[in-house]
Amino acid sequence: MIHVKTKFERPTAEAVARLAKFSSATIHEAQGRKGALNSKIKPIDRNMSFCGPAVTVRCAPKDNLMLQVAIHYAEAGDVVLVSAGEYGEAGTFGDVLGTAMKAKGLAAMVTDSGVRDTQDLIELGLPVFSANVCIKGTVKETIGPINHPVVFGDEIIYPGDILKGDADGVVVIRREEIEDVIRLSQQRDDEERELMGRYLAGGTTIELCNLTEVLKAKGLLVEDA
Alpha-carbon distance 65 to 68, whole Å? Predict the structure, then answer.
């Protein structure tokens, strides 16, 4: 088996930039309520956000050898996604590797393991999303695959799939679906802005969400004034 695949198709930077303006929740809803990664994956700082194609990595628990290899081969704008068996009791990534990623112009680090040096990473300005924060060190022993499909956060992720992360979590978008998802996300954004405007103008939830007949069918009883 070839461990490291260096060639895969990425979306255009222009398409990624158009997708990036939408929130993870909007994208998740717009593409049919799919693609949301497990809610354990959160940013180390709520102000962090990113959008970019995935470079997928499988690491053994408590081992960051292949993460370092992945950083070497990743390209500017890529998101390094590390599947490490959801083992949280390890600080597989910190400020040194964060500096290496920042210097290469990589978009973000996402892992189902733990990270450390979080204050330094926040100051560095590299978006880091993880399942845990842990100071425990790691080894560099085990060879694994890079840019093969991985199971991560209850989703299958392929190299070149787009990941969007923000304060609410991370969602994956298939590369071949990016234009449809951009269109559907814009449509949802427009509809929600219109709805919020109608609320500000005095509309009510039952009226604007068309709940009158739904509630009647369910037998909702309201005490008379």
Answer: 5
Cβ neighbors of 129 (< 8 A, separation 6 or more) are 41, 42, 43, 44, 48, 108, 109, 110, 111, 165, 170
Q: Encode pLDDT of 57-112 as tens digits.
A: 999 999 999 999 999 999 999 999 999 999 999 999 999 999 999 999 999 999 99
Structure pTM?
0.94
* Encoded tokens for 110: 């996402």
Q: Name the token pair of 60.
A: 């053994």
d(CA 205, CA 77): 41
How far, in whole angstroms, is CA 125 from its chain's centroid?
17
Q: Are 35 and 171 in contact (CB under 8 A)?
A: yes
Distance between CA atoms of residues 134 and 93, nearest Å: 10
Task: Please tell me what DSSP assigns to residue 22.
Answer: S
Q: Is 173 exposed, middle or buried (0-12, 13-18, 19+ CB in 10 A)?
A: buried
Whole-number percent of the chain with pLDDT over 70: 100
Extract the tokens encoding 90. Answer: 């390890």
